Amino acid sequence: MDGQDSGDTKQSTADMTQFVQTLLQQMQSRFQTMSDSINALDEMGERINELEQSINDLRTEMGAEGGGSPSPSPLSTSKKPDAKPEEPSSAE
């Protein structure tokens, strides 16, 4: 019986070793994927910062060339200044 117990122990150890190796490989793969994603986000953040700086530089240039403050953006002029909200009538 000792021979069979020794064989079972060796097989159990081999199975556990294989399981741990597979688990470590999966963890490494997932870590690499996450690391790649973080690097992509960092690069995107840097590009956004560069774009914001370029926009600010253009605004500054436009303001300096116009001799005054830069003109408002189209988004800020889209509201009609004459439009007044309707007020409920108090004649009821």
Automatic annotation (TrEMBL):
<dbReference type="InterPro" id="IPR009643">
    <property type="entry name" value="HS1-bd"/>
</dbReference>
<dbReference type="GO" id="GO:0070370">
    <property type="term" value="P:cellular heat acclimation"/>
</dbReference>
<dbReference type="GO" id="GO:0005634">
    <property type="term" value="C:nucleus"/>
</dbReference>
<dbReference type="GO" id="GO:0003714">
    <property type="term" value="F:transcription corepressor activity"/>
</dbReference>
<feature type="region of interest" description="Disordered">
    <location>
        <begin position="55"/>
        <end position="92"/>
    </location>
</feature>
<protein>
    <recommendedName>
        <fullName>Heat shock factor binding protein</fullName>
    </recommendedName>
</protein>
<dbReference type="GO" id="GO:0005829">
    <property type="term" value="C:cytosol"/>
</dbReference>
<feature type="compositionally biased region" description="Basic and acidic residues">
    <location>
        <begin position="79"/>
        <end position="92"/>
    </location>
</feature>
<dbReference type="Pfam" id="PF06825">
    <property type="entry name" value="HSBP1"/>
</dbReference>
<comment type="similarity">
    <text>Belongs to the HSBP1 family.</text>
</comment>
